[in-house]
Amino acid sequence: MSILDRHKHSWDKLGEMDPQWAILTDPKGKFGKWDLDEFFATGENQMANVLAMAEGLGYPKQRETALDFGCGVGRLTRGMAKYFTHCHGIDISESMIAKAKELNQAFPNCQFTVNFADHLRVFPDSQFDLIYTAIVLQHLPTRVMIKSYIADKVHSVAIAEETFEPRFPVELTKSGGYFGKPYFSGADVGTFTSRRVTTRSAFAMEYTVECPYCNKRFKRSKYNTKLNEHKDRYGNRCYGRVGYMV
Ligand SMILES: C[S@@+](CC[C@H](N)C(=O)[O-])C[C@H]1O[C@@H](n2cnc3c(N)ncnc32)[C@H](O)[C@@H]1O
Ligand SMILES: [Zn+2]
Question: Which end of the chain has fewer CB atoms surrounding its CB within 10 Å, N or C?
Answer without folding.
Answer: N
